[in-house]
Amino acid sequence: MSDYLLRRLLYAFPILLGVNIITFFLFFVVNSPDDMARIHLGNKYVTTDAIEKWKGERGYDRPLFYNSEKQGRGKLLDTIFYTKTVKLFVFDFGQSDSGRDIGYDISQRMWPSLMITLPILILGLFLTISLALAVAFFRATYLDTFAVIMCVCMMSVSGLFYIIGGQYLFSKLLKIVPISGFDDGFLAIKFLILPVVVGVVGGLGSGTRWYRTIFLEEVNQDYVRTARSKGLSEKVVFYVHVLRNGMIPILTGVVALLPSLFLGSLITEAFFGIPGLGSYTIEAIQSQDFSIVRAMVFLGSALYILGLVLTDISYTFVDPRISLR
Amino acid sequence: MTLNFRWRYLGCLLMILSACGENPWNNPYPSKDSTSNTYYSSFSERPKHLDPVSSYSEGEAIFTAQIYEPVVQYHFFDRPYSLVPLTAERMPEPLYLNANGEVVGTDATDSEIAEVVYRINVKKGIQFQPHPSLAKDKDGQYAYHGLSRLDLDRVSVLSDFELSGSRELIAEDYVYQIKRLMLPSKHSPIAGFMARYIKDFAPFGERLEAQNLLDQPLALRQTSFEGAKVIDRYTYEIRLTRKYPQFVYWLAMSFFAPVPWEADAFYNQPGMQERNLSLDWYPVGTGPYMLTENNPNRRMVLERNPNFRGEVFPEDSRAKENKNAQAGSIMPFIDKAYFSLEKESIPAWTKFIQGYYDSSGVVAESFDQTISFSSAGEPHLTDDMSKKGVELLTSTKSSISYLGFNMVDPILGGDSKRSRLLRRAISIVVDYEELISIFANGRGQAAQGPLPPGIFGYLGGKEGINNYVYDWIEGKPSRKSVAEAQELLVQAGYQDGIDSSTGEPLTLFFDTVSSGPGSKAMLNWYRKQFEKLGIELVVRATDYNRFQEKVRTGSAQIFSWGWNADYPDPENFLFLLYGANAKITSQGENAVNYQNSDFDSLFLQIRSMPDSLAREKLINEMVEILRRDAPWIWGFHPTSYVLKHGWYGNADPNLMARNTLKYKTIDPYQRMEKRREWNDPIIWPGLVGLFFLILMALPAWFVYHAREKARVR
Fold first, then answer.
1. ipTM score
2. Which residue ranges of chain B lie beneath pLDDT 50?
3. What structural domains and CATH numbers belong to chain B?
4. Per residue in A290-308, pLDDT tens?
5. Of B136, B463, B465, B566, which one's alpha carbon is 20 to 30 angstroms from that of B345?
6. Is there a contact between A180 and B351 if contact means CB atoms under 8 Å apart?
7. Of B702, B687, B698, B675, nearest in space to B35 by CA
8. Judged by CB atoms within 8 Å, which residues 694-713 of B form the interface with A?
9. Could you tell me if B215 lies within 8 Å of chain A, comparing CB atoms?
């Protein structure tokens, strides 16, 4: 397995480099270093001299990809791309264009994101799997049809509707939980209830329908017929045999999601006032802070690759027929 | 567990939950703060800078203005706005010197004046807030000025430093901050501007740079600077190279607030920046409040500065007129101010309605449920809002939103009669009264010229109307008819929107950054205004950077722009049209590149004049020139609508002063009562919902059991 992991790690390098090149290209097509300086220095009384100084101090006075004025390797190394990219590969995110330490900010903001995304994932999984099992149990009945219709309806509703509807119902009308905000430690619980409920309910339709399909595939397998023929009750058939085998695609899908849970959710965090990472990248794009944008895109890509590797590894745990070479 | 016991258990649980009613369930704040003397508000955009050298935005001033104290401040009540001493013993008065260093009178001409000196005396006994940078050890040495990276191992926030100290505010702190303005690393937005006025400003920076002494607090202290000098412990002077009466307004901004050199010495130590420990994050001031929590992604907390000397609430006629109970009392009144980040308007509005914010703007989604207009067009609160004890405070902002004609454009620009008539015709048909009504919910006042109400030189009533666009009918300005605009268009040679010289239809281009669905209605509205004259308006939507570039290079034709006053002086608006400030030639603030020698010469006169009848007369002349030339469609002055709860006092809008937190009062007991009254939780719908869920699940339950018991046939 170690050979396999090493190989995947080496594959990751060109992928991350490619992602960086694309991010860099897209960012600087829209924003020139002069534009970035103007955004950071404000709209009033900005002089050309101030812009040049800002660029010089942050290294944006270099050419983007190729420095024709330098000799040898300097032509490639003394560029914005090289100086802003190379440290990312050792996860040194450096400072934002406004002078903040990006690594520190990420470490502070990822925990509130995790406090939302993790309960939503766990509770959502539990509920959707339970519902999907129940629906699969009543397959080809009116209950099944009703459940599928409900799932499709719930899938069709925008996530924003669940958020605004949830806030209106539980916070404004019933006044049961705060509409937005956050606090430390256990005091955070009352702020997490609503976003977690909304997140779980919002994902219920698609999750249940997807897992129902998985369980229905399993229900028709030979081993299920064998189990029934052994005289096992439907409860045992479903909760022991169907669930265990159905969990293979579910778990591997979930494992792929795990690393990106740190990155949070933009809309949920904005509406519920959660100080997470969800809005970090958007804020950086708005303020044209390239240092944060490149760091977050890099981190997102790295976590995605990590998720895929973890998925491959998890296959070996849940399916003994698979081994990684 | 029997069924009976289960119901009893559920009943007890509900009773316990209901008993939590001391603090409403939806209260976002800790229950211990329910009766605390705390002000609750929100902010929507995280502040970028809290260092007074670079902080400039309104959002940042909410915090910095409560922490830092410049030498002067705006009077809380006075209108038109006036300055009064804050930490200065008396108002700074300029002393004019000629080339020989002799004092000349205030009536001396610009050419006679070689230097202007402001000598400022700082009050004695003012103390800085407690801060680690000022802490001293037993030997009287600074406790945290020689730290190594190792010493900072266990430090992540400022409160991790055990010791804090303070010292008296002295003149040097003001001089030090003025020196900081020119440090390249601080990127002060006004550095370039101030270099035009403050003596030795640019050369001082060059000297430091040449000696590689930039960003060395000690060197900055010790290097002499002619522009700002310490005279004695409590006196300093600022030297300007020319007469600039508006300079005193700059002295009221945080750019000129004191910063102790110790703060820079502390924050410049190795390892501080990596921990985000900087003056940009943890300010040090002498003001009534200090920042005790800075988490702009969540909340910012200001608490009473224990070292604050206390300041007397104004006792003048206005306070007495309002029977203000605080007149003569020592400020500040509030112990703590709690600002939460609210990126979305709906949660912020709901919290205001629930009593969790003390004041709020009016959100567009709830405007009709909040504000109604009388037949005379006066705004007032709806009955629901009035019953809650909410009050509405309105004030016209010292700002202008306008439509600019690029004056170097071959069709619209220039000083020809043809282009002037065309601009005037367009000015008539773009109906800003309608725009204010449709797109701003009536929150604005159509502008008659560049000066907003409340600014010296502004004329209201019949004398103040723009006679090129309005007639005075039945005691109010009435926009001229489209027919009159069409007549002007004919005179300009564009009858029915056809260019008489080419026979081609006239097409104009409107550059804007508004392109989303929300802007579509307004852009269509603009098109319709131009259609009244048969002119096709082509909207060129672009991103912010390209838009700015077009304006900078003079390639935009018509564009929407605005200006928010830095200080309440007409110069701060009229300089937007001063020829030497043209965007394409000097990258100045004259975005339309307007040039008029008469206007420019008058501007140079009024720029250095004190407020007087003569100045007012010249300003009126300048405004009249502008109205005739119409380089802008004058647009409108936005009106601020602020709602406040009954328990929140002294919320009078003062759109110039930012340090108003110290004046405000809160009645926390009334607030607590209202919060309880408005936020009684409603549980029964939840129970009913649960019942229906169980009801829905029952058939499945029965079917499951029936299947389990079924026998093979």
1. 0.87
2. 1-3, 12, 15-20
3. 34-53+286-389+645-713 (3.40.190.10), 54-275 (3.90.76.10), 399-640 (3.10.105.10)
4. 889 989 999 999 998 998 8
5. B566
6. yes
7. B675
8. 699-700, 703-704, 707-708
9. no
